[in-house]
């Protein structure tokens, strides 16, 4: 009899957690819709999203963070401001490049790094991911139905 009570209590606990998860999922969906709507309304954000690896969230974050892109003379200055360039250690005429400097906005840097990783992992625009099967050209490299996907 006590085992039945424990099972019922556990089932109730799991059901409450699932309800909370569904509620959070609905909130995330609503926030994503708001971000995409703001992205579509902003010309700068739409232009940034044309760059491979940058979607509505990253483009909106860049527009919100970088007030005026004309304040940078070139792309290297913008990358340095975001913390995406390697640190340098120079001594005796030798320059040693270390890892990225990690200065600047960590959220923006994280979004850009994830976008770059996505593009280097999947390569071209015709992706063989789970939602992109219809775009696959039948290259033979796809592992359809498997957990991992390769470049198409």
The string of secondary-structure elements, in order, is HHHHEEH
Number of strands: 2
Morphology call:
extended
Oligomer: single chain
- Main beta sheet strand tally, sense and closure: 2 strands, antiparallel
Estimated helix fraction? 40-55%
User: For the terminal residues, how far apart are their CA atoms?
Assistant: 57 Å
β-strand amount: 5-15%
Backbone CA Rg? 22 Å
**Number of self-contained structural domains:** 1
Rounded mean pLDDT is 78
Structural class: mainly alpha
Tally of alpha and pi helices: 5
Strand order of the largest sheet: 1-2
Q: Uncertain runs with pLDDT below 50, 5 residues or more? A: 125-152
Written description of the protein model:
The chain has helices spanning 2-41, 43-48, 56-65, 75-82, 106-122; strands at 86-91, 94-100. By secondary structure, the chain is mostly helical. A two-stranded antiparallel ribbon has the order 1-2. Helix 3 runs antiparallel to helix 5 (106-122). The longest helix has 40 residues, at 2-41. The chain is extended, with a radius of gyration of 22 Å. The N and C termini lie far apart (57 Å). Residues 125-152 have low confidence and may be disordered.
List keywords for this structure.
mainly alpha; 5 helices; single chain; disordered C terminus; two-stranded antiparallel sheet; extended; 152 residues; 2 strands
